[in-house]
Structure formats: structure tokens, C-alpha cells
Amino acid sequence: MSLLKTDRTTAPKAPKTKTREWADSLIFAIVAATLIRWATFEAYTIPSPSMENSLLVGDYLFVSKLHYGPITPQTPLQVPLTHQTVWGTGIKSFSELIQLPTYRLPGFSEIKRNDVVVFHVPHESQYPADLRTNYIKRCVAVAGDTLEIREGQVYLNGKPGVTPPGLETTYFMQVDNPNDEVLADLRAQGVVEYEQPGGSPQAVTAPDGKVGYAISCTVAAANFFRKQPYVKNMTVIQPQVALFPDVADFRNSPAMSATPRGWSLDSYGPLPIPKKGQTIALSPGNAAIYFKIIARYEHNEGITWKDGMIFQNGKMLTSYTLKQNYYMMMGDNRHNSEDSRFWGFVPEDHVVGKAVLIWLSVDPFGDFWHKIRWNRLFNIIH
């Protein structure tokens, strides 16, 4: 018979101290929270009125990364914690750092028309996508669509698109006498000017000498004001600016289309939305549409812009096959939103997730008793 001998030379393992137990628990909690935030849901807040009246300044949202699938980080581990630290090292831009390949894990839904989507803004080219500012807009067109806007109405493939119920338009509301009655009605109709004290719109004088208010509001609110005796006229106003693709590379280079279109915010397109696997014949008539895709989003080397055409290593490109899908994003406050009409398409690998739920809403101008917008709590986002 053999006997199992105990090794008396090995000392028993010392129990963990309370400090060590707390440290281990804290590390586990941080890792678990990071994984949950990366792979499932993340909380965001609305800081600007570009999605009003569908989403309001002060809304707190849950954004689902499960819908489209979480995306792996692009930023390497060597990237410092702050942008300022990187610039202080003498590195001129994040593009000089090695970036990791990007992969999207499977989700249970594709990006659909009318989804409210959070994404990394495309035009901050000095940073990797996952270190850029996050925007939230509505997906108005998906890869393969042809988008057109006529008199403010979106058309997809020749047919009218869905109009979101909270869609806002900007008007100049001419009045005889700006007074407290007008301001009370503006407040009651949900018209807020966030840059003014108390959120109340201020009366202005137009170049033609007419007095009134520049306001963004829903169609229902506009119809209400048209019926008021103090309103003389309601005129749609919008900024007169050069848009994509006349401006081929928003804020990044002076590249301009060789064939300017002169589109406006309410009269835009038709514009084809690029689709993965599609081969495009390039010409001066469409090169500006695809310049940023080829030069930046799909990471091709040696791309330059010259005389309204795209060149690679000094040779003019006459065709190109797309490597991923693209989307057109617009704010519901259609005249007060910097969106795809300004800077073009959103690449699929820039999409973070789908906004699904308002879990809290705080009125920045509400008093103590009205600070919380109770009617918006736990609303599903449409």
C-alpha cells in the first residue's frame, strides 16, 4: 500500500488582506463596466438643438451597441489619455501613430432608414475615428439609395421619405409688437433659444426693417402662430452656404468640385449613397463625391486632389471599388444642423450605435419644480 505524503515544506497561502480584496473587486468592476459600455449600452446626453423637437437639449439617452454590433477600438494602447499630451510630445497628428484594424462584431440589426444613430464625426481627420466627437443624427438614406430633397421633403429613390414627427423648420416670424404675450406663446409651443438668458427668443430686426423672431419649430407650432393676430408673416429661412459635394473635403482642404451644383439645405440632390462592392467610374462630374472616401475613409495611400480629379501616386484614378457601406445623416432641426449636407457620408465603421431610450430629461431653463421633464422619462426613441 502506498501512502500520499503531505509536503510540509510548502507554507500555506496567506489570506488576502482587506485592502487586496477591495482592490481586486474594484479592478473587476472597472473591467466589467468597460466591457458592458463597449459591447452593450452607453449613456449619452444631448448638448445641442440639432435634433429638436425629436430630442431636446438635456435629454439623457441609452445607445445600444448590440443593434449594429460593437466595433473594436482603433486607438492603440500607446495613445496617451488626452489629446493635449499627444500634441505635447511633438507628434503632429494621431495619423502618425499605429492604428489597429477595425472589426465590427455581429449585431442583430442593420442600420435602417429613420434610425437615430450615434457616430464618430467624419471630418475630424486629425484623430482616429474612435477619438473624434460623437454626433447624433437621423439616418435618412442607406447604402444604395439615391437621396433628393425638394422644398424640404426628403425623397428616396424617387419616393417621399418618412417625415419624423418632431421635425423642425426655421422661420422668421414677423410681429407687430414683441411683448410678453408672444414670449408666453413661444414658450408654450416649445420654442427655445438656448443661447439666450432663460431660453426666451429675442426680437430682431431684419435687413428690410421688419421686426420679429427667428425661431425653429414644428409644423404644428408654425400653424398655431399663423393663426395668431400678432403674427404678420411666417417666412422659411436657411443659411446660404456651400454644401457637399461642391465642398469636397469639409474643413480639411480647399478641394472643390469641378462641376458645382449650388444645392441648398431644402433643395439638395439627387445624390447616390455609396454601397460596398460598387465600382464607380470617376469623372470631373462626380470625383468630389468620392474624394474623402478614397483618400481617408478607406485608408488608401498616395491619394491627392488635382484639377477636380483624384490621383494615386501621381496617376489619375478613373474607377474605384468601394470597400464599405455609407450613410446619409441629418438632424431633425433641418435648418439648424451641421450634418451630411455639409460634410458628406458617414462610413459604416464610424457608426457607434442606435439611440433607443430617453432615461432622463432635464430642462436647462426649468425652475426647481419643473427641472425634470417627467413626460419624457423612459420614452422609446423613434
From TrEMBL:
It comes from Hymenobacter jeongseonensis. It is an enzyme of class 3 (hydrolase). It comes from the Bacteria. This is Signal peptidase I. Residues 20-161, 318-359 form the Peptidase S26 domain. It is a single-pass type II membrane protein. It is found in: Membrane. Belongs to the peptidase S26 family. The keyword Oxidoreductase does not apply. It catalyses: Cleavage of hydrophobic, N-terminal signal or leader sequences from secreted and periplasmic proteins. Its EC number is 3.4.21.89. The keyword Hydrolase applies. Keywords: Hydrolase, Protease. GO terms for molecular function: signal peptidase activity.
